[in-house]
Amino acid sequence: MAGPPERIVLGLERMRAAMALLGLPARLPMPVITVAGTNGKGSTVACLETFYRQAGYQVAAYTSPHIWSFNERLRLNGIPAPTADWDTALDDIAAVAGTVALTFFEIATLAAVKILCAAQVDLVILEVGLGGRLDAVNAFDPDCSVLTTVDLDHQDWLGPDRLSIGREKSGIFRPNVPALYGDAANPCASVLEAAAQNQVLLQLLGRDFDFDAQARRWWGFGQVLAMPEPLWPAAAQWQNLALALAAVWFLQKKLPVSDAALSHWSIRPDLPGRAQILRPWGENGPRLIVDVAHNPQAVAQLATLLEGQGGRCHAVVAMLADKDVAGTLKNLLRRVEVWHVLEITDTPRAASAVSLQQCLWEMGAAHVKIGENMQTVTQALSSVLTADDSIVCFGSFHLVKQLPRQWLDGASV
Questions:
Q1: How far is CA 320 from CA 40, 103, 327, 357, 397, in A?
Q2: pLDDT tens for residues 1-54?
Q3: Of the residues 212, 335, 357, 399, which has the maximum number of CB atoms within 10 A of its CB?
Q4: What is the pLDDT of residue 9?
Q5: DSSP secondary structure string, 243-306?
Q6: How far apart are CA 83 and CA 406, in angstroms?
């Protein structure tokens, strides 16, 4: 029905044509929150999803990419949509696929929207796949837009610099619709300009709303709220949590949520593969730190997490060739003692293990080994490292999915 998932063709013309044939409106019958950004989308979506579930609402969350199963891309009340629902929706889309040449992501997005409409949920949270302005998700109109951060990633599609990327991501904004932006320390000028030019009700973290992590307080728009702990203790996670709380505030008239449902987690947000600290080999084995981080900004945040861990640190890494490989890896050079580079085998976009090794050598890394596969490398390391040591696995969703699912479903420490 479509080309491979790696085929990226931006634009909304195909989506709008298919939506007309399928009878899907741009304005869905329930409130929609659209979330874009270079980093932080997943945790912001997870917090939003959990807040509304705790308040008793039926919530659909559409995210990408998946780690293990395609069904993960749409969660209905925290549970992946059933295969039978996907099959029914995809059968409907197959009928129009001969008329409109849809991409893999466009088909997935259309199918997800058909499923959540049939489920008659109370709220839809849509995570942008790539960029914003021309992403398939942007064919649907939001009641609130969230832009987490703007930084360098996907330059081949979004432009060579932060200003270009900011213009593309702010394409999710709509005139007179609330939009929240999270780059408090260094807001991107093109995002601010786009909001001003298009009469967007832009609300900026640090200016219009803010938080105090130590006191666990959020404030904005004349209100002060108690905050729960973020998914993990990092500055970026407090920022994502603050964005989620601001979005809830703007939808209060449509979907009221009590202060009690916002102040603590009665349902723990679930976000496998993001800054997880695990002990799969028991208390005497090394820590396994897992993160899908694959761009400079995300790995800089991962480096901050690693600074709080003692002992030796070995890294297991694989990346896509179209990423800023050197800019990403350099953020961990001072912390990692030994590098184990792997090659992703399920996509033609993979960087070769040899190229990763060469890149690390050129940046001064002394110990860089090419590993056979994830199982071999992690098993060998688990037998020589101690409980004080860490194995950090990062660089791509494609790499993280090679870990046993039961590990990432386990409790973090």
A1: 20, 20, 13, 14, 10
A2: 555 565 678 889 999 999 999 999 999 999 999 999 999 999 999 999 999 999
A3: 399
A4: 84
A5: HHHHHHHHTTTTS---HHHHHS-SS----TTSSEEE-TT-TTSPEEEEE---SHHHHHHHHHHH
A6: 21
The residue written with tokens 């085929």 in the block is 7
Q: pTM of this prediction?
A: 0.93
Does residue 136 contact residue 26 with C-beta atoms inside 8 Å?
Answer: no
CB 264 within 8 A of CB 50: no
pLDDT by residue (tens digit) across 279-291? 999 999 999 999 9
Assess whether pLDDT exceeds 50 at residue 413: no
Residue whose pair of structure tokens reads 């213009």 in the numeric block: 167
At 239, the pLDDT band (50, 70, 90 cuts) reads very high
**Token duo for residue 168:** 């593309």
Residues whose CB falls within 8 Å of the CB of residue 344, separated by 6 or more in sequence, listed in order:
318, 319, 320, 350, 351, 396, 398, 399
- Which residues are bridge partners to 188 per DSSP? none
What percent of the chain has a predicted confidence (pLDDT) above 70? 97
Dist. CA 306–CA 298, nearest whole Å = 13
